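Exercise 7. Predict the joint structure of the components listed below.
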Amino acid sequence: MNSKLQTLQGMHDRLPENMKKRQWVIQRITSVFEKYGFEPMETPAIEYWEILSGKDVYGDEEKLIYKFQDRGRRDVGMRFDFTVPLARVVSSYPDITMPFKRYQIQTVWRCDKPQYGRFREFYQCDVDIVGTESVIAEAELIILASEIFEAIGFKKFMTKINSRKLLQTICEYSGVDKSKEFELFRAMDKRDRIGIDGVKENFEVLGLSKEAKEKIISSLGQPIAQLEKLLPNKEGIAQVRTLFSYLENLGCNMKHIMFDPWLSRGFDYYTGPIFETIIEGTKVGSVAGGGRYDNLIGKFNDKDIPAVGISIGLERVLMVMDKLDMNPKIASPVKFLVTLFDEPTIKYALQVAKDIRNSGVGVEVYPEAIKIGKQFKYASKKKIPFVVIAGPDELKTHSVAIKDMKSGTQETLKLAKLNTWLQKKLEVRK
RNA sequence: GUGGGUAUAGCUCAACUCGGUUAGAGCGCUUGCCUGUGGAGCAAGAUGUUGCCGGUUCAAAUCCGGUUACCCACCCCA
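Solution:
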Protein backbone atom coordinates (compact mmCIF):
# COMPACT_ATOMS: atom_id res chain seq x y z
CA MET A 1 0.00 0.00 0.00
CA ASN A 2 1.45 3.27 -1.06
CA SER A 3 0.53 6.06 1.28
CA LYS A 4 0.85 8.54 -1.57
CA LEU A 5 -2.19 6.90 -3.15
CA GLN A 6 -4.43 7.71 -0.24
CA THR A 7 -7.56 9.78 -0.65
CA LEU A 8 -7.98 12.86 1.50
CA GLN A 9 -9.29 12.45 5.03
CA GLY A 10 -13.00 11.74 5.14
CA MET A 11 -13.27 11.34 1.37
CA HIS A 12 -13.85 8.06 -0.38
CA ASP A 13 -13.63 6.42 -3.76
CA ARG A 14 -16.97 5.07 -4.82
CA LEU A 15 -16.40 1.85 -6.73
CA PRO A 16 -19.02 0.20 -8.96
CA GLU A 17 -20.39 -1.99 -6.17
CA ASN A 18 -21.18 1.09 -4.12
CA MET A 19 -22.28 3.22 -7.06
CA LYS A 20 -24.81 0.69 -8.29
CA LYS A 21 -26.50 0.70 -4.90
CA ARG A 22 -26.22 4.47 -4.63
CA GLN A 23 -27.81 5.03 -8.00
CA TRP A 24 -30.53 2.56 -7.23
CA VAL A 25 -31.43 4.61 -4.14
CA ILE A 26 -31.09 7.93 -5.96
CA GLN A 27 -33.37 6.64 -8.69
CA ARG A 28 -36.05 5.84 -6.12
CA ILE A 29 -35.64 9.23 -4.51
CA THR A 30 -35.86 11.23 -7.73
CA SER A 31 -38.85 9.34 -9.02
CA VAL A 32 -40.79 10.28 -5.89
CA PHE A 33 -39.56 13.88 -6.10
CA GLU A 34 -40.72 14.15 -9.68
CA LYS A 35 -44.05 12.55 -8.91
CA TYR A 36 -44.75 15.56 -6.68
CA GLY A 37 -43.67 18.05 -9.32
CA PHE A 38 -40.14 18.85 -8.20
CA GLU A 39 -37.57 19.57 -10.89
CA PRO A 40 -33.81 19.03 -10.84
CA MET A 41 -31.28 21.77 -10.25
CA GLU A 42 -27.53 21.96 -9.67
CA THR A 43 -25.23 24.71 -8.46
CA PRO A 44 -21.43 25.09 -8.55
CA ALA A 45 -19.24 23.27 -6.07
CA ILE A 46 -17.46 26.50 -5.21
CA GLU A 47 -19.08 29.78 -4.19
CA TYR A 48 -17.76 33.16 -3.17
CA TRP A 49 -16.82 33.11 0.48
CA GLU A 50 -18.94 36.19 0.97
CA ILE A 51 -22.05 34.32 -0.10
CA LEU A 52 -21.36 31.35 2.14
CA SER A 53 -20.38 33.34 5.19
CA GLY A 54 -21.67 36.86 4.71
CA LYS A 55 -25.21 36.33 5.88
CA ASP A 56 -24.29 34.43 9.02
CA VAL A 57 -26.56 31.56 8.09
CA TYR A 58 -24.41 28.81 9.55
CA GLY A 59 -23.28 30.47 12.77
CA ASP A 60 -20.66 28.34 14.54
CA GLU A 61 -20.82 25.80 11.76
CA GLU A 62 -19.07 28.26 9.50
CA LYS A 63 -15.69 26.97 10.61
CA LEU A 64 -16.54 23.66 8.94
CA ILE A 65 -16.70 25.21 5.47
CA TYR A 66 -13.75 24.40 3.20
CA LYS A 67 -12.23 27.79 2.49
CA PHE A 68 -9.35 28.81 0.25
CA GLN A 69 -8.14 31.31 -2.34
CA ASP A 70 -8.43 30.52 -6.02
CA ARG A 71 -5.84 31.48 -8.64
CA GLY A 72 -7.32 34.92 -8.93
CA ARG A 73 -6.85 35.39 -5.19
CA ARG A 74 -10.59 35.34 -4.62
CA ASP A 75 -11.78 34.03 -1.28
CA VAL A 76 -13.96 31.04 -2.03
CA GLY A 77 -15.57 28.13 -0.23
CA MET A 78 -16.95 24.71 -1.06
CA ARG A 79 -20.68 24.08 -1.07
CA PHE A 80 -21.70 23.31 2.52
CA ASP A 81 -25.35 22.56 1.91
CA PHE A 82 -27.99 23.45 -0.68
CA THR A 83 -29.94 25.97 1.32
CA VAL A 84 -27.62 28.90 0.75
CA PRO A 85 -27.12 28.16 -2.97
CA LEU A 86 -30.89 27.93 -3.30
CA ALA A 87 -31.33 31.28 -1.60
CA ARG A 88 -28.76 32.79 -3.96
CA VAL A 89 -30.45 31.31 -7.02
CA VAL A 90 -33.91 32.46 -6.00
CA SER A 91 -32.56 35.93 -5.31
CA SER A 92 -30.66 36.29 -8.56
CA TYR A 93 -33.32 34.97 -10.94
CA PRO A 94 -36.37 37.08 -10.14
CA ASP A 95 -38.47 35.63 -12.94
CA ILE A 96 -38.44 32.09 -11.53
CA THR A 97 -41.98 30.72 -11.41
CA MET A 98 -43.29 30.63 -7.86
CA PRO A 99 -43.88 28.50 -5.97
CA PHE A 100 -40.48 27.20 -7.00
CA LYS A 101 -40.18 23.45 -6.50
CA ARG A 102 -36.74 22.06 -7.09
CA TYR A 103 -34.62 19.16 -5.93
CA GLN A 104 -30.84 19.04 -5.78
CA ILE A 105 -28.72 15.91 -5.42
CA GLN A 106 -25.00 16.61 -5.30
CA THR A 107 -22.06 16.31 -2.98
CA VAL A 108 -21.42 18.78 -0.20
CA TRP A 109 -18.25 19.27 1.81
CA ARG A 110 -17.80 19.74 5.51
CA CYS A 111 -14.38 19.95 7.11
CA ASP A 112 -15.56 17.95 10.08
CA LYS A 113 -13.67 15.23 11.89
CA PRO A 114 -14.72 11.99 10.20
CA GLN A 115 -16.62 9.52 12.32
CA TYR A 116 -19.32 6.90 12.13
CA GLY A 117 -21.86 8.09 9.59
CA ARG A 118 -19.90 11.22 9.01
CA PHE A 119 -17.72 12.22 6.10
CA ARG A 120 -16.05 15.27 4.63
CA GLU A 121 -17.51 14.73 1.21
CA PHE A 122 -21.00 13.31 0.98
CA TYR A 123 -24.20 13.35 -1.01
CA GLN A 124 -27.29 15.11 0.09
CA CYS A 125 -30.70 15.12 -1.50
CA ASP A 126 -32.65 18.30 -0.91
CA VAL A 127 -36.17 19.20 -1.90
CA ASP A 128 -37.52 22.65 -1.24
CA ILE A 129 -40.61 24.68 -1.99
CA VAL A 130 -39.97 28.40 -2.20
CA GLY A 131 -42.62 31.08 -2.29
CA THR A 132 -45.53 29.78 -0.27
CA GLU A 133 -46.53 29.97 3.36
CA SER A 134 -49.06 27.21 2.96
CA VAL A 135 -48.60 24.28 5.30
CA ILE A 136 -49.55 22.08 2.35
CA ALA A 137 -45.91 22.48 1.37
CA GLU A 138 -44.75 20.91 4.64
CA ALA A 139 -47.31 18.15 4.29
CA GLU A 140 -46.05 17.30 0.81
CA LEU A 141 -42.44 17.13 1.93
CA ILE A 142 -43.23 14.89 4.87
CA ILE A 143 -45.38 12.48 2.90
CA LEU A 144 -42.82 12.44 0.14
CA ALA A 145 -40.11 11.44 2.61
CA SER A 146 -42.32 8.61 3.84
CA GLU A 147 -42.88 7.42 0.31
CA ILE A 148 -39.17 7.44 -0.36
CA PHE A 149 -38.27 5.39 2.69
CA GLU A 150 -41.01 2.96 1.85
CA ALA A 151 -39.82 2.71 -1.75
CA ILE A 152 -36.30 1.92 -0.58
CA GLY A 153 -37.73 -0.85 1.56
CA PHE A 154 -37.56 0.41 5.14
CA LYS A 155 -40.22 -0.96 7.44
CA LYS A 156 -39.58 0.80 10.71
CA PHE A 157 -39.06 4.50 10.32
CA MET A 158 -40.58 7.50 11.99
CA THR A 159 -40.89 11.13 11.04
CA LYS A 160 -41.11 13.36 14.08
CA ILE A 161 -42.83 16.66 13.70
CA ASN A 162 -42.78 19.80 15.79
CA SER A 163 -42.93 23.55 15.31
CA ARG A 164 -40.44 26.22 16.22
CA LYS A 165 -43.36 28.58 16.74
CA LEU A 166 -44.80 26.18 19.30
CA LEU A 167 -41.43 25.87 21.03
CA GLN A 168 -41.12 29.63 21.19
CA THR A 169 -44.56 29.88 22.71
CA ILE A 170 -43.60 27.32 25.33
CA CYS A 171 -40.45 29.27 26.12
CA GLU A 172 -42.43 32.45 26.47
CA TYR A 173 -45.00 30.76 28.67
CA SER A 174 -42.24 29.28 30.84
CA GLY A 175 -40.47 32.60 31.18
CA VAL A 176 -37.30 31.68 29.32
CA ASP A 177 -35.22 34.60 28.17
CA LYS A 178 -35.45 35.10 24.40
CA SER A 179 -31.63 35.14 24.12
CA LYS A 180 -31.40 31.64 25.57
CA GLU A 181 -34.03 30.19 23.31
CA PHE A 182 -31.75 28.68 20.70
CA GLU A 183 -29.30 27.17 23.18
CA LEU A 184 -32.27 25.65 24.91
CA PHE A 185 -33.44 24.10 21.62
CA ARG A 186 -30.05 22.56 21.10
CA ALA A 187 -30.04 21.10 24.58
CA MET A 188 -33.49 19.61 23.98
CA ASP A 189 -32.43 18.12 20.71
CA LYS A 190 -30.04 15.80 22.52
CA ARG A 191 -32.78 14.02 24.39
CA ASP A 192 -32.53 10.90 22.27
CA ARG A 193 -28.86 10.51 23.10
CA ILE A 194 -28.53 11.69 26.68
CA GLY A 195 -32.04 11.17 28.02
CA ILE A 196 -34.31 13.59 29.83
CA ASP A 197 -32.07 13.68 32.88
CA GLY A 198 -29.14 14.67 30.72
CA VAL A 199 -31.18 17.45 29.21
CA LYS A 200 -32.13 18.66 32.67
CA GLU A 201 -28.45 18.90 33.53
CA ASN A 202 -27.87 20.91 30.39
CA PHE A 203 -30.70 23.23 31.38
CA GLU A 204 -28.77 23.78 34.58
CA VAL A 205 -25.78 25.03 32.64
CA LEU A 206 -27.99 27.48 30.78
CA GLY A 207 -28.85 29.05 34.07
CA LEU A 208 -32.62 28.71 33.85
CA SER A 209 -34.68 29.38 36.92
CA LYS A 210 -36.08 26.37 38.70
CA GLU A 211 -39.58 27.44 37.84
CA ALA A 212 -38.84 27.90 34.12
CA LYS A 213 -37.15 24.53 33.98
CA GLU A 214 -40.05 22.70 35.53
CA LYS A 215 -42.59 24.50 33.44
CA ILE A 216 -40.80 23.57 30.24
CA ILE A 217 -40.36 19.95 31.10
CA SER A 218 -43.95 19.52 32.20
CA SER A 219 -45.24 21.32 29.09
CA LEU A 220 -43.20 19.09 26.83
CA GLY A 221 -44.68 16.05 28.51
CA GLN A 222 -48.25 17.07 27.75
CA PRO A 223 -50.36 15.60 25.00
CA ILE A 224 -51.20 18.13 22.34
CA ALA A 225 -54.76 18.76 23.56
CA GLN A 226 -53.52 19.63 27.05
CA LEU A 227 -50.84 21.90 25.66
CA GLU A 228 -53.44 23.77 23.71
CA LYS A 229 -55.40 24.59 26.86
CA LEU A 230 -52.23 25.59 28.66
CA LEU A 231 -50.65 27.99 26.21
CA PRO A 232 -51.80 31.55 25.74
CA ASN A 233 -50.77 31.68 22.10
CA LYS A 234 -52.36 28.96 19.98
CA GLU A 235 -50.59 29.69 16.69
CA GLY A 236 -47.94 26.98 16.92
CA ILE A 237 -50.44 24.35 17.98
CA ALA A 238 -52.78 25.34 15.19
CA GLN A 239 -49.96 24.94 12.71
CA VAL A 240 -49.20 21.42 13.88
CA ARG A 241 -52.88 20.50 13.84
CA THR A 242 -53.34 21.79 10.31
CA LEU A 243 -50.26 19.94 9.17
CA PHE A 244 -51.54 16.66 10.60
CA SER A 245 -54.94 17.08 9.01
CA TYR A 246 -53.40 17.79 5.60
CA LEU A 247 -51.22 14.72 5.98
CA GLU A 248 -54.29 12.61 6.57
CA ASN A 249 -56.06 14.13 3.58
CA LEU A 250 -53.05 13.37 1.40
CA GLY A 251 -53.31 9.73 2.43
CA CYS A 252 -50.16 9.61 4.51
CA ASN A 253 -49.56 6.41 6.42
CA MET A 254 -49.81 7.87 9.92
CA LYS A 255 -47.98 5.03 11.62
CA HIS A 256 -44.75 6.60 10.40
CA ILE A 257 -45.62 10.05 11.72
CA MET A 258 -45.64 11.45 15.23
CA PHE A 259 -45.80 14.75 17.02
CA ASP A 260 -42.73 15.18 19.19
CA PRO A 261 -42.61 18.39 21.23
CA TRP A 262 -38.97 17.67 22.08
CA LEU A 263 -37.79 17.85 18.49
CA SER A 264 -35.98 21.12 17.89
CA ARG A 265 -33.15 20.68 15.31
CA GLY A 266 -29.76 22.29 15.31
CA PHE A 267 -30.05 25.02 12.70
CA ASP A 268 -30.84 28.49 13.81
CA TYR A 269 -32.77 29.53 10.73
CA TYR A 270 -35.97 27.49 11.12
CA THR A 271 -39.07 29.54 11.77
CA GLY A 272 -42.06 27.17 11.58
CA PRO A 273 -42.72 23.45 11.42
CA ILE A 274 -39.65 21.22 11.69
CA PHE A 275 -39.29 17.51 11.04
CA GLU A 276 -36.78 14.72 11.18
CA THR A 277 -36.87 11.07 10.11
CA ILE A 278 -35.09 8.27 11.93
CA ILE A 279 -34.82 4.60 11.09
CA GLU A 280 -35.67 2.65 14.20
CA GLY A 281 -33.10 0.35 15.70
CA THR A 282 -30.00 2.13 14.41
CA LYS A 283 -27.60 4.61 15.93
CA VAL A 284 -26.88 6.51 12.76
CA GLY A 285 -28.97 9.48 13.84
CA SER A 286 -31.43 11.08 11.52
CA VAL A 287 -31.60 10.14 7.86
CA ALA A 288 -33.67 13.14 6.87
CA GLY A 289 -34.41 16.50 8.36
CA GLY A 290 -35.92 19.81 7.46
CA GLY A 291 -38.32 22.57 8.21
CA ARG A 292 -39.61 25.98 7.33
CA TYR A 293 -37.23 28.93 7.02
CA ASP A 294 -39.18 32.01 6.09
CA ASN A 295 -36.50 34.59 6.88
CA LEU A 296 -33.45 33.09 5.26
CA ILE A 297 -33.88 34.08 1.64
CA GLY A 298 -34.59 37.62 2.77
CA LYS A 299 -30.96 37.85 3.83
CA PHE A 300 -29.96 37.57 0.19
CA ASN A 301 -32.85 39.58 -1.13
CA ASP A 302 -34.64 42.73 -0.12
CA LYS A 303 -37.87 40.95 0.56
CA ASP A 304 -38.53 37.86 2.66
CA ILE A 305 -39.58 34.86 0.63
CA PRO A 306 -41.08 31.95 2.56
CA ALA A 307 -39.54 28.53 2.02
CA VAL A 308 -39.59 25.03 3.38
CA GLY A 309 -37.35 22.09 2.63
CA ILE A 310 -36.20 18.66 3.62
CA SER A 311 -32.85 17.00 3.15
CA ILE A 312 -32.29 13.27 2.82
CA GLY A 313 -28.92 11.99 3.97
CA LEU A 314 -28.00 9.55 1.26
CA GLU A 315 -24.82 8.30 2.95
CA ARG A 316 -26.69 7.45 6.09
CA VAL A 317 -29.47 5.77 4.18
CA LEU A 318 -26.86 3.58 2.53
CA MET A 319 -25.18 2.83 5.85
CA VAL A 320 -28.45 1.84 7.45
CA MET A 321 -29.24 -0.38 4.49
CA ASP A 322 -25.93 -2.17 4.98
CA LYS A 323 -26.49 -2.46 8.68
CA LEU A 324 -29.97 -3.91 8.21
CA ASP A 325 -28.64 -6.21 5.50
CA MET A 326 -30.88 -4.74 2.85
CA ASN A 327 -29.54 -5.75 -0.51
CA PRO A 328 -31.77 -4.48 -3.28
CA LYS A 329 -31.93 -6.73 -6.31
CA ILE A 330 -30.27 -4.55 -8.87
CA ALA A 331 -30.80 -5.91 -12.34
CA SER A 332 -27.75 -5.53 -14.52
CA PRO A 333 -28.50 -3.75 -17.79
CA VAL A 334 -26.20 -6.28 -19.42
CA LYS A 335 -28.07 -9.53 -20.02
CA PHE A 336 -25.67 -11.26 -22.43
CA LEU A 337 -21.99 -11.95 -22.66
CA VAL A 338 -20.86 -12.89 -26.13
CA THR A 339 -17.71 -14.97 -25.90
CA LEU A 340 -14.93 -14.92 -28.45
CA PHE A 341 -13.81 -18.33 -29.52
CA ASP A 342 -10.98 -17.89 -31.99
CA GLU A 343 -9.61 -15.42 -34.50
CA PRO A 344 -11.61 -16.65 -37.57
CA THR A 345 -14.99 -16.43 -35.80
CA ILE A 346 -14.53 -13.01 -34.16
CA LYS A 347 -16.46 -11.24 -36.88
CA TYR A 348 -19.32 -13.71 -36.58
CA ALA A 349 -19.46 -13.21 -32.80
CA LEU A 350 -19.45 -9.44 -33.17
CA GLN A 351 -22.30 -9.71 -35.64
CA VAL A 352 -24.29 -11.77 -33.16
CA ALA A 353 -23.57 -9.23 -30.40
CA LYS A 354 -24.89 -6.46 -32.63
CA ASP A 355 -28.05 -8.41 -33.41
CA ILE A 356 -28.82 -9.03 -29.75
CA ARG A 357 -28.01 -5.44 -28.83
CA ASN A 358 -30.41 -4.22 -31.50
CA SER A 359 -33.24 -5.86 -29.61
CA GLY A 360 -32.63 -3.33 -26.86
CA VAL A 361 -30.82 -5.31 -24.17
CA GLY A 362 -27.29 -4.75 -22.93
CA VAL A 363 -24.63 -7.01 -24.39
CA GLU A 364 -20.99 -7.32 -23.48
CA VAL A 365 -18.44 -8.83 -25.78
CA TYR A 366 -15.43 -10.41 -24.12
CA PRO A 367 -12.57 -8.54 -25.76
CA GLU A 368 -10.12 -11.43 -26.04
CA ALA A 369 -10.36 -14.92 -27.45
CA ILE A 370 -9.02 -16.54 -24.30
CA LYS A 371 -10.05 -19.85 -22.77
CA ILE A 372 -13.80 -20.14 -22.84
CA GLY A 373 -13.88 -21.17 -19.18
CA LYS A 374 -12.41 -17.84 -18.14
CA GLN A 375 -14.97 -15.99 -20.13
CA PHE A 376 -17.70 -17.93 -18.37
CA LYS A 377 -16.14 -17.09 -15.06
CA TYR A 378 -16.18 -13.43 -15.97
CA ALA A 379 -19.89 -13.62 -16.78
CA SER A 380 -20.53 -15.45 -13.54
CA LYS A 381 -18.72 -12.83 -11.46
CA LYS A 382 -20.49 -9.98 -13.15
CA LYS A 383 -23.81 -11.79 -12.77
CA ILE A 384 -24.57 -11.66 -16.47
CA PRO A 385 -27.52 -14.05 -16.92
CA PHE A 386 -26.80 -15.41 -20.41
CA VAL A 387 -23.59 -16.43 -22.13
CA VAL A 388 -23.56 -16.68 -25.90
CA ILE A 389 -21.14 -18.80 -27.87
CA ALA A 390 -20.68 -18.08 -31.54
CA GLY A 391 -17.73 -20.26 -32.48
CA PRO A 392 -16.82 -22.44 -35.48
CA ASP A 393 -19.59 -25.03 -34.91
CA GLU A 394 -22.20 -22.31 -34.71
CA LEU A 395 -20.83 -20.46 -37.70
CA LYS A 396 -21.12 -23.60 -39.81
CA THR A 397 -24.80 -23.99 -38.98
CA HIS A 398 -25.66 -20.29 -38.72
CA SER A 399 -26.66 -20.65 -35.11
CA VAL A 400 -25.66 -19.61 -31.60
CA ALA A 401 -25.40 -21.49 -28.33
CA ILE A 402 -26.93 -19.67 -25.39
CA LYS A 403 -26.38 -20.78 -21.83
CA ASP A 404 -28.64 -19.68 -19.03
CA MET A 405 -26.18 -19.10 -16.20
CA LYS A 406 -28.76 -19.40 -13.48
CA SER A 407 -30.26 -22.74 -14.46
CA GLY A 408 -27.15 -24.02 -16.20
CA THR A 409 -29.12 -25.12 -19.24
CA GLN A 410 -27.96 -24.43 -22.73
CA GLU A 411 -29.71 -24.36 -26.07
CA THR A 412 -28.59 -23.94 -29.63
CA LEU A 413 -30.78 -22.00 -32.00
CA LYS A 414 -30.66 -20.78 -35.56
CA LEU A 415 -29.70 -17.18 -36.11
CA ALA A 416 -32.99 -16.65 -37.92
CA LYS A 417 -34.88 -17.61 -34.79
CA LEU A 418 -32.80 -15.48 -32.45
CA ASN A 419 -35.13 -12.55 -32.61
CA THR A 420 -38.28 -14.41 -31.65
CA TRP A 421 -36.34 -16.18 -28.89
CA LEU A 422 -35.20 -12.83 -27.50
CA GLN A 423 -38.70 -11.44 -27.70
CA LYS A 424 -40.00 -14.38 -25.73
CA LYS A 425 -37.29 -14.09 -23.07
CA LEU A 426 -37.75 -10.36 -22.66
CA GLU A 427 -41.48 -10.86 -22.41
CA VAL A 428 -41.04 -13.40 -19.62
CA ARG A 429 -38.75 -11.05 -17.73
CA LYS A 430 -41.36 -8.32 -17.69
C1' G B 1 -11.58 21.78 18.13
C1' U B 2 -10.88 17.95 22.76
C1' G B 3 -9.91 12.82 24.53
C1' G B 4 -9.03 7.38 23.60
C1' G B 5 -7.86 3.16 20.23
C1' U B 6 -5.89 0.94 15.70
C1' A B 7 -2.49 0.38 11.23
C1' U B 8 0.66 -6.84 9.23
C1' A B 9 -0.87 -10.36 1.81
C1' G B 10 -6.33 -8.00 -2.53
C1' C B 11 -9.95 -8.81 2.10
C1' U B 12 -10.67 -10.50 7.46
C1' C B 13 -7.23 -11.31 10.95
C1' A B 14 -2.83 -14.19 13.91
C1' A B 15 2.26 -13.38 15.71
C1' C B 16 3.47 -7.79 19.48
C1' U B 17 2.35 -8.68 26.34
C1' C B 18 8.25 -10.61 27.59
C1' G B 19 12.62 -7.97 20.73
C1' G B 20 15.75 -13.59 18.57
C1' U B 21 16.00 -18.55 12.32
C1' U B 22 12.75 -17.86 6.30
C1' A B 23 6.09 -13.03 9.41
C1' G B 24 1.34 -17.26 9.28
C1' A B 25 -4.17 -18.77 8.59
C1' G B 26 -8.96 -18.43 6.23
C1' C B 27 -11.25 -16.22 2.07
C1' G B 28 -9.93 -14.35 -2.67
C1' C B 29 -6.35 -14.78 -6.88
C1' U B 30 -3.35 -17.85 -10.66
C1' U B 31 -2.61 -22.78 -12.78
C1' G B 32 -4.02 -27.87 -13.51
C1' C B 33 -7.57 -32.18 -13.20
C1' C B 34 -11.42 -30.29 -17.74
C1' U B 35 -7.32 -28.71 -25.29
C1' G B 36 -15.91 -25.63 -26.35
C1' U B 37 -18.54 -24.11 -20.47
C1' G B 38 -18.74 -20.38 -14.58
C1' G B 39 -20.61 -21.91 -9.41
C1' A B 40 -18.91 -27.53 -6.21
C1' G B 41 -14.50 -30.83 -5.33
C1' C B 42 -9.28 -32.13 -5.40
C1' A B 43 -4.07 -30.71 -6.28
C1' A B 44 -0.26 -27.16 -6.90
C1' G B 45 1.36 -21.95 -6.94
C1' A B 46 2.03 -16.54 -6.37
C1' U B 47 1.61 -12.23 -3.27
C1' G B 48 4.29 -8.38 2.17
C1' U B 49 10.00 -2.40 2.12
C1' U B 50 4.69 -5.22 8.80
C1' G B 51 1.28 2.76 6.85
C1' C B 52 5.41 6.40 6.48
C1' C B 53 10.01 8.90 8.83
C1' G B 54 13.44 8.57 12.55
C1' G B 55 15.55 6.57 17.35
C1' U B 56 17.19 2.53 20.93
C1' U B 57 19.65 -2.40 20.12
C1' C B 58 24.35 -7.30 18.12
C1' A B 59 19.12 -7.89 16.50
C1' A B 60 12.62 -4.37 15.68
C1' A B 61 6.16 -6.32 12.95
C1' U B 62 7.36 -6.36 18.37
C1' C B 63 10.26 -1.05 22.45
C1' C B 64 10.41 4.74 22.05
C1' G B 65 9.35 9.54 19.39
C1' G B 66 7.18 11.92 15.29
C1' U B 67 3.83 11.78 11.11
C1' U B 68 -0.38 10.34 8.04
C1' A B 69 -4.81 7.65 7.71
C1' C B 70 -8.81 4.97 9.80
C1' C B 71 -12.14 3.74 14.07
C1' C B 72 -14.66 5.32 18.79
C1' A B 73 -16.52 9.11 22.27
C1' C B 74 -17.43 14.50 23.02
C1' C B 75 -18.94 18.79 20.05
C1' C B 76 -22.10 19.23 16.06
C1' C B 77 -24.76 17.21 12.01
C1' A B 78 -26.96 14.18 6.98
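Discussion. The first strand of chain A starts at residue 39 and ends at 40.
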